[in-house]
Amino acid sequence: MLCDAGGAIKMIAEVKSDFAVKVGDLLSPLQNALYCINREKLHTVKVLSASSYSPDEWERQCTAAGKTQ
User: Fold this and answer.
1) I need a surface site. Which of 1, 13, 27, 56 has the fewest CB within 10 A?
2) Which candidate, 25, 68, 56, 67, places its Cα nearest to that of 15?
3) CA distance linking residue 40 with residue 28, whole number of Å
4) Digits of tens for pLDDT over the chain (69 positions)?
């Protein structure tokens, strides 16, 4: 989940990374769907899919995750 400075959820994203992303980490955009973690350009995540947050989208994501477990 991507939150704004006030903590409101803005986006839900599936990412691939060799590095752990922790609560409070800052993701800064680079290029080609890459984001660096806490402005460390060697620590990146690749966005695989993303959608804007809404209660309906959250429910859909939770339902889909439940079906795959």
Assistant:
1) 56
2) 25
3) 9
4) 666 666 676 777 788 999 888 878 888 889 988 989 989 999 999 989 887 777 887 788 788 877 654
**Burial letters for 41-55: b for 16+ Cβ neighbours within 10 Å, e otherwise?**
eebbbebeeeeebee
Q: Looking at residue 32, what DSSP letter applies?
A: T
Q: Whole-model pTM?
A: 0.61
- In the structure encoding, which two tokens stand for residue 24, read together? 């409070």
Fold of 2-68: OB fold (Dihydrolipoamide Acetyltransferase, E2P) (2.40.50)
- Show the beta-strand stretches assigned E in 1-69: 2-3, 9-17, 27-29, 34-37, 40-52
Spatial separation of the C-alpha atoms in residues 37 and 27, rounded to whole Å: 5
Instruction: Look at the block and give the residue holding tokens 């922790």.
Output: 22
